């Protein structure tokens, strides 16, 4: 797919099979769509890209997805940022709150901190499932794996 964007490390990407941009990061562990946000007040976008570059990487992603660990795949890119620009040579098919739309590139995403007031009923528990789940970033998992292997920084 023709989706061009730059990740948090400044690396330019020329494609992605999936690109999800959300107001505040979601806690995603797999591609089933079951997720929640631990916070609505972080002031950053949550960005997830799945970029499969080989059949071996596709197999790895599917195997990890089967055991609920897709985010540990090398195809899984996840970061937060206040803005994101996505370019393409043609209109981009997108879903916005469940509605299918075609958007003209470049797509410019920007978080507007504190632009939304959320009211909860008194019966609300107050913490989303993601807020109760401790998480590790992909970078942290890679660093731990390197330390376990004895790699020197």
Structure description:
The structure is a single chain. This protein has 153 residues and is of the alpha+beta class. The chain has one domain: Tumour Suppressor Smad4, CATH 2.60.200. The strands form 4 sheets. A 3-stranded antiparallel beta sheet has the order 3-4-5, with no helix packed on it. The chain has a two-stranded antiparallel ribbon with strand order 1-2. A two-stranded antiparallel sheet has the order 6-9. Strand 1 and strand 2 form a beta hairpin. The radius of gyration is 17 Å and the shape is globular. The termini are far apart. The relative contact order is 0.18. The model has no long low-confidence stretch (mean pLDDT 81).
Summary of the model, kept short:
18% of the residues lie in helices and 26% in strands. The protein is of the alpha+beta class and 153 residues long.
Which helices and strands appear, and what pairs or packs with what?
Layout (H helix, E strand, L loop, with lengths): L4 E2 L5 E2 L4 E6 L21 E6 L4 H12 L9 E6 L1 E4 L5 E5 L2 E5 L3 E4 L18 H4 L5 H12 L4
Antiparallel strand pairs: 1-2, 3-4, 4-5, 6-9, 7-8
Beta-strand percentage?
A: 25-35%
**Main sheet specs:** 3 strands, antiparallel
Number of spatially distinct domains:
1
Mean pLDDT: 81
Alpha-beta content class: alpha+beta
- Look at the structure and give the CATH class: Mainly Beta
DSSP strand tally: 9
The CATH topology corresponds to Tumour Suppressor Smad4
Count of helical stretches = 3
Q: Secondary-structure element sequence?
A: EEEEHEEEEEHH
- What is the 3D shape? globular
Taking all Cα atoms into account, the compactness measure Rg is 17 Å
- Uncertain segments of ≥5 residues (pLDDT<50)? none
Widest sheet: strand ordering: 3-4-5
Termini, distance in Å?
A: 35 Å
Which CATH-level-2 architecture?
Sandwich
Helical proportion, percent range: 10-25%
